[in-house]
Prior knowledge:
By secondary structure, this protein is mainly β.
Amino acid sequence: xxxxxESGGGxxxxxxxxxxxxxxxxxxxxxNVMGWYRQAPGKERESVASIAGSSRTNYADSVKGRFxxxxxxxxxxxxxxxxxxxxxxxxxxxxxxPTGVRLNRWGQGTQVTVSS
Length: 116
């Protein structure tokens, strides 16, 4: 069974940076496409970024140019480098596979709080 564990969140000032990590366990075939999602208080969960294979990436318009998704397939790790953080980036961040999203299976996420 696929397990995903997110880490790296924290409290940061506007304009700051954080790097989130996602550790995956299970069949590597399940991880061809990986995504980062976030859910802010009172809002629905939204897609932030995704990566297919080793380099095909896609970003939400709200984070383009600020966030970078990457992966280390050998270590089954996915990362989200977040720069120039804004107040509106405050949310719980999750990583997931398309199957996990479809089955509504989520990890515990990692809290990112941007505050001055």
